[in-house]
Amino acid sequence: MAEVKEKIIEIFFTLCGLMAVVVLVGIFSLLVKEGFPALKTIGFSGFFNGDLWRPDAFGKPTYGLWPAIEGTLVTTAIAMCISIPLGVGTSVYLAYLAGNRTREILKPVFELLASIPSVVIGFLGLVATGPLIAKLTGRSNGLNALNGGILLCLMSLPTIISVSEDALQALPRDFWRGSLALGATRFRTVMKVMIPAAKGGIFAAVMLGMGRAVGETMTVLMATGNVGSFPSGILSSVKTLTATIASELGEVPFGSEHYHALFVVGAALFIFTFIINLAGELVIGRKR
Amino acid sequence: MRVSKKQIVEEAYISIFRVCAFLVILIIAALIIHLIKNGIQVLSWDFVSKAPTEGMTAGGIFPALAGTTLVTLITGLVALPLGVGAAIYLTEYASDNFLTRLVRLSIRNLSGVPSVVYGLFGLALFVRGLHFKPGLLTAGLTLGLLILPWAITTAEQSIKAVPVSYREGALALGCTKWFVIRTVVLPPAMPGILTGLILGLARAAGETAPILFVGASFFIPQLPHSIFDQFMALPYHLYVLSTQHQDIQLVRPIAYGTALVLLMLIMFFSGGVIYLRARLRKKYQQW
């Protein structure tokens, strides 16, 4: 009797563990299921060949995804240009240069940065960095891809700093001592020994940080101006994949073509971030 | 002491890394100071205890504060049992096989799924599929699933920190496995599990995108009466005040105040937890 009970309990906990698989598969299949009606009427070519996202055009709505994809790529690229050097540099400082006490104070501070809500960062883009960019560039409006990218960098920095610091800390201390003993300077040691040795972990850090930037919603929704045409440079207003969903789903009627089309956008976003994160995870997984 | 040119150049190069760390701190400080400077004048007891009045141009943010508190409680009630259950499976039952690797891979990938996609998922599953009304429960379930990977990972870490010898000792005395988990493994792991959960909840409380479609509402003058009612939430309130309101300049001070309250609330809980966790870590020496 007791054995049966133990077995039942084991099965119960196994089911709890399987929840994670069920949720992941459930998310993707629901996105596909809800997006399918739109794929049927609009077709793949409607989404991927069209250059215009105009679901509300009278009579002939178009659902081209490219402007939103480019919006996402431009803002993410700007964010990565800032956060990769800044994040990796900070992780080198934490791993090799900071004293123990400094590190113990700084690490929680970076963790706190990760818990600042994205809507607060977006709000700051609206009231602080946006107007600043407008003033510096002499434009009437600073809500553009550059503004979004700068703020997105804040969302990906905590991930990049913590994952790449872990990678640097995991290296044998002897690499550092050995290189110094051979007469290399600390800077040379970092650049030629430590960073190359940790390149897998740093790559993973960049990928995970990029995944966060691509999937971030409120920051770009509030800070990039949301004009859904092709970006013509980093100072033009853009509308990302995430912002398209967040700004339009609240207004569409349930079951309309537009409603289903937004799930196709969601599925595209899911696949993008899944590939980026998987690339990062596989590298980390191999190290384990 | 003679300093060679090489040493000066080296010092300059190595300072690049110091400057990076300093810049990051500077940015964080600038953001927080900007919010405090502009938000502090509207903060008052009335601001956090009264409802908005006159088309949200005056009054306080109490319904939003209450809504966020309630939805976060429900999120915790969803994420705690599921997270601990999955963590017990991973630490106590799972053998190193394909299934376990699949579960671990799924957990890591779930944590990378964009929050707005969880919003779509919540809408499709709970509202369209199960015919729940958008409201506190639906939003709580959606956010609960959002922080599930975080809840599992932190629970797993704190359960793992319980020494194996505890388990072996109890098993050797003839206890069943479930009895050991219940009475020997979980009690010492509980502080760690709860601090991890609170950190996850602090992040869930600041999320806006997932609750946009599953229950957060523009303006409701009274508090929700049941878990099926729609609610106001702090992050959504901030979004509405700063982008959707018809007189954005007029409500800007209130928006600053809302942002500051939201930030202080989250910083208070995550800061407290990060401090507690550092102390716990010293106690267990691993974690």
Instruction: Give the low-pLDDT segments of chain A.
Output: none
Question: pLDDT average of chain A, as an integer?
Answer: 88
Question: What's the helix count of chain B?
Answer: 11
CA-atom Rg of chain A in angstroms: 23 Å
Tell how many strands the DSSP assignment of chain B holds. Answer: 2
Description of the structure:
The complex is a heterodimer of chains A (288) and B (287). By secondary structure, chain A is mainly α. In chain A, 77% of the residues lie in helices and 1% in strands. Chain A has a two-stranded antiparallel sheet. A two-stranded antiparallel ribbon of chain B has the order 1-2. In chain B, α3 crosses α6, α3 (62-93) packs across α10 (234-244) and α8 packs antiparallel against α9 (177-206). Chain B is globular, with a radius of gyration of 23 Å. The mean pLDDT of chain B is 87. Chains A and B meet through α1, α2, α3, α4 and α5 of A and α1, α3, α4, α5 and α7 of B.
Name its key features.
heterodimer; A: two-stranded antiparallel ribbon; 11 helices; B: 287 residues; mainly alpha; two-stranded antiparallel sheet
List the helices and strands and how they pair.
The complex is a heterodimer of chains A (288) and B (287).
Chain A lengths: L1 H47 L4 E2 L7 E2 L2 H32 L2 H16 L2 H20 L7 H25 L3 H9 L4 H12 L1 H17 L2 H6 L17 H8 L8 H31 L1
Chain B lengths: L4 H35 L5 H5 L2 E2 L4 E2 L2 H32 L4 H13 L4 H15 L6 H11 L1 H13 L3 H9 L4 H30 L27 H11 L3 H37 L3
Antiparallel strand pairs in B: 1-2
Helix pairs in contact in B: 1-11, 3-6, 3-7, 3-9, 3-10, 5-6, 7-9, 8-9, 9-11, 10-11
